[in-house]
């Protein structure tokens, strides 16, 4: 919420066979004065009507033939727009631009007359959006119920007709008892910038509490059903809580004893399994080595056969060569050389003696290898014999461990079965105990819900109130205005929340005559606008006052008269000096000071067809 005021730019009336009647307004102080029955008060009524008043526009003879009225407004940050409404009332047409006179050449946007919270296409919502005060809620009654803020709530504070300005009533109250809370909540909203959206009303609290009570009753009924089901289940257990707890304690002791037996047996079994595994690994090692040796011996037998064949072949060479050496000399059987041509001292392919020698040497070598092979085979057979012996020695221990493992495994299985049965029985008993506990919990919860259900519904809604310091600041603003206008006894002004009005010099404002009530009403209305502007709070941004200076020409008594004082001069000078950037419109019978007229927008209705402006409507 920020200060973003509207400015009235003009009001007009038109009809199909009538010259338009219009009046323009400017920023700053606008003063309209003149004789009675010239349409001055009708202007205020028409502005109120064009700002959404539900009551039909008052009929005056001068209005005959005029069927529509327009009001031109300009937001501070926005484009000028024109509102048009039938003089008989109803919804509005909004035109973009200034169409105070002439026929609009743009399409209108229809705005509903009645404010509806959350609905955007109403006059109220549109005007509220232009002053940046949308979606606000104000308290409706002492029960704390709230309603959506309407622009009409604000119009009452800025457009003041003569009948209202003199009422013995706070300017912030409409006088209707049913709207007293709303009126003061709107005043609070403008002073603080905070609405009542966060307020929870009595009806809401009562509904919530009643809903909670009904929920508790439903919960109690559900709990009763659950308890009944659980008690049926308990009956099937065939034991009471004490018996169940005793049995569970006994089963727990049995379970612990059985678990100790299982642990001890499993330790013994694991020990034997580890030892058996070690023996098995050794036996497997023996078998593997024996198989390797058997494979080697088999290959050695083949090699031995090859050695023997080689020896026999070499022996044949040796024997045949020896015989050849002792025969008579003949041509060489290899190279064919004649005996005389043979060179015995030279080695050649036909040197039989060398061949015999080589064969003899090779036989010796092979025989050595054969002996070594036999020795290696013998060593391997000895190793096989030793490995076999070791394996035979380990077999009995392996068999014993197997037997022990079987003997231990059978009791372990039995113990496990017993343990499982104990666990199952413990689970059944524990389930029974849990059911007993659940029933007790549900009964306790039922008692709690019943107690909540029987509690009386108490609703305490704080009244609408403003801080004393804030009200004092507002009272100081009003006092400043009154002192600037030289209002009598204005040195002591404070705001009373009891009467929702100011007290001047120790006397309630409403105890004065209607003339003084009018001027002090003006001070509070203008003071509210200045207060909001200085604190950058939302406000319509304009004020229209009808006859605030009644004390000058219609005093109720001598005490109510301001004639002879300079209040009127001070009043007009203050408004001219301090509202050049805002807008105040004053409707009065008497003229403002002559030296002021060139600083303000001044309109004089003469009621003389031959002199100046006759009135709001043209003279017929």
What is the distance, rounded to the nearest whole angstrom, between the alpha carbons of the first and last residues?
47 Å
Question: Uncertain runs with pLDDT below 50, 5 residues or more?
Answer: none
| Average of per-residue pLDDT values | 87
Question: What class, by secondary structure content?
Answer: alpha/beta
The ordered H/E elements are EEEHEEEEHEEHEHHHHHHEEEHEHHEE
General description of the model:
- There is one protein chain.
- By secondary structure, the chain is an alpha/beta fold.
- It contains twelve helices and 16 strands.
- Strands 2-1-4-5-6-7 form a six-stranded antiparallel beta sheet, with helices on one face. The chain has a five-stranded parallel beta sheet with strand order 10-14-15-3-16, sandwiched between helices.
- The model has no long low-confidence stretch (mean pLDDT 87).
Briefly characterize the structure.
The protein is an alpha/beta fold.
Brief descriptors of the model:
alpha/beta, single chain, five-stranded parallel beta sheet, 620 residues, elongated
Secondary structure topology:
Elements: E1 6-15, E2 18-24, E3 28-34, H1 40-50, E4 68-75, E5 81-86, E6 92-96, E7 109-111, H2 123-130, E8 137-139, E9 146-148, H3 151-158, E10 159-160, H4 162-165, H5 180-192, H6 202-237, H7 241-325, H8 352-454, H9 468-484, E11 493-496, E12 501-504, E13 507-508, H10 514-534, E14 542-546, H11 550-553, H12 567-578, E15 583-588, E16 601-605
Parallel strand pairs: 3-15, 3-16, 10-14, 14-15
Antiparallel strand pairs: 1-2, 1-4, 4-5, 5-6, 6-7, 8-9, 11-12, 12-13
Helix pairs in contact: 6-8, 7-8, 9-10
């Amino acid at each position: 919420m920020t200060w973003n005021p509207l400015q009235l730019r003009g009001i007009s009336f038109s009809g199909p066979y009538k010259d338009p009647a219009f009046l323009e307004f400017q920023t700053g102080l606008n003063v309209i004065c003149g004789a009675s029955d010239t349409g001055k008060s009708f202007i205020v009524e028409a502005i109120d009507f064009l700002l959404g008043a539900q009551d039909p526009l008052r009929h005056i003879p001068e209005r005959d033939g005029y069927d529509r009225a327009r009001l031109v407004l300009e937001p501070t940050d926005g484009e000028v727009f024109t509102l048009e409404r039938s003089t008989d009332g109803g919804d509005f047409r909004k035109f973009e631009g200034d169409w105070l006179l002439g026929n609009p050449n743009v399409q209108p946007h229809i705005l509903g007359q009645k404010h509806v919270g959350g609905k955007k296409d109403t006059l109220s919502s549109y005007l509220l959006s232009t002053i940046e005060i949308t979606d606000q809620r104000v308290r409706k009654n002492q029960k704390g119920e709230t309603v959506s803020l309407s622009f009409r709530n604000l119009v009452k504070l800025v457009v003041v007709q003569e009948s209202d300005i003199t009422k013995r009533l706070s300017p912030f109250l409409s006088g209707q008892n049913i709207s007293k809370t709303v009126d003061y909540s709107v005043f609070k909203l403008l002073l603080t910038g905070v609405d009542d959206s966060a307020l929870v009303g009595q009806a809401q609290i009562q509904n919530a509490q009643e809903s909670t009570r009904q929920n508790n009753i439903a919960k109690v009924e559900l709990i009763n059903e659950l308890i009944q089901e659980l008690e049926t289940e308990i009956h099937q257990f065939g034991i009471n809580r004490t018996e169940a707890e005793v049995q569970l304690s006994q089963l727990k002791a049995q379970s612990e004893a059985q678990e100790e037996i299982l642990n001890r047996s499993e330790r013994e079994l694991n020990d034997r399994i580890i030892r058996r595994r070690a023996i098995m690994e050794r036996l497997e090692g023996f078998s593997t080595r024996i198989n390797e040796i058997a494979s080697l011996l088999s290959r050695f037998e083949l090699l031995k056969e090859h050695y023997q064949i080689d020896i026999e072949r070499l022996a044949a060479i040796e024997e045949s060569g020896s015989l050849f050496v002792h025969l008579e000399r003949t041509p060489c059987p290899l190279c064919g050389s004649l005996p005389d041509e043979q060179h015995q001292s030279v080695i050649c392919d036909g040197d039989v003696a060398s061949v015999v020698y080589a064969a003899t040497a090779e036989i010796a070598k092979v025989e050595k290898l054969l002996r070594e092979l036999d020795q290696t085979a013998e060593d391997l057979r000895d190793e096989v014999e030793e490995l076999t012996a070791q394996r035979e020695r380990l077999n009995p221990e392996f068999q014993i461990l197997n037997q022990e493992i079987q003997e231990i495994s059978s009791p372990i299985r039995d113990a496990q079965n017993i343990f499982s049965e104990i666990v199952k029985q413990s689970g059944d008993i524990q389930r029974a105990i849990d059911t007993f506990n659940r029933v007790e919990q549900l009964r306790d919860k039922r008692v709690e819900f019943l107690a909540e259900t029987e509690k009386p519904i108490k609703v305490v809604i704080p009244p609408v109130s403003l801080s004393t310091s804030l009200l004092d600041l507002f009272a100081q603003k009003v006092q400043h205005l009154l002192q600037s206008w030289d209002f009598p006894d204005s040195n002591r002004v404070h705001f009373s929340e009891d009467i929702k009005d100011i007290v001047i010099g120790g006397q309630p404002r409403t105890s004065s005559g209607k003339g003084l009530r009018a001027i002090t009403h003006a001070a509070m209305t203008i003071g509210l606008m200045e207060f909001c502007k200085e604190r950058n709070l939302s406000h319509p941004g304009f004020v229209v006052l009808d006859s605030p200076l009644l004390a000058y020409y219609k005093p109720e008594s001598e005490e109510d008269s301001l004639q002879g004082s300079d209040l009127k001069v001070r009043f007009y000078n203050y408004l001219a000096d301090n509202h050049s950037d805002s807008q105040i419109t004053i409707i009065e019978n008497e003229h403002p000071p002559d030296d002021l007229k060139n600083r303000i927008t001044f309109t004089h209705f003469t009621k003389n067809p031959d002199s100046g402006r006759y009135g709001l409507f043209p003279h017929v």
